[in-house]
Design goal:
95 residues, mainly beta, Immunoglobulin-like, three-stranded antiparallel β-sheet, 52% strand, disordered N terminus
């Protein structure tokens, strides 16, 4: 017996999400991996204590997002990226 038409499960690794330039000055780009479903992506910038400094939801099918960081003082931050089925945190350096 053979099973056909199994749903495809998209797997993504941390390397599928790119942040550049990093260190950032004024803005940084977030490259989103291909998302099959029309998922929204929640982006949060946190300080090193975990306090949310900014939060937004973007269209996950857009492929990329330009994040304005000009309002942040120079320093190290965390960028938390969350979809329906994945959450990851990356270091973001602002100059």
């Amino acid at each position: 017996n053979r099973i056909n038409n199994l749903p495809r499960v998209a797997t993504r690794s941390d390397e599928d999400w790119k942040i550049f330039p990093n260190p950032a000055k004024g803005f940084t780009n977030i490259q989103l991996p291909y998302l099959e479903d029309e998922q929204d992506v929640a982006l949060r910038v946190l300080d090193l204590r975990g306090q949310v400094l900014s939060s937004r939801v973007v269209d996950g099918t857009s492929g990329s997002y330009r994040l304005n960081v000009s309002n942040l003082p120079a320093g190290v931050y965390w960028l938390r990226i969350q979809t329906d089925d994945q959450q990851l945190t990356k270091k973001l350096i602002v100059q």
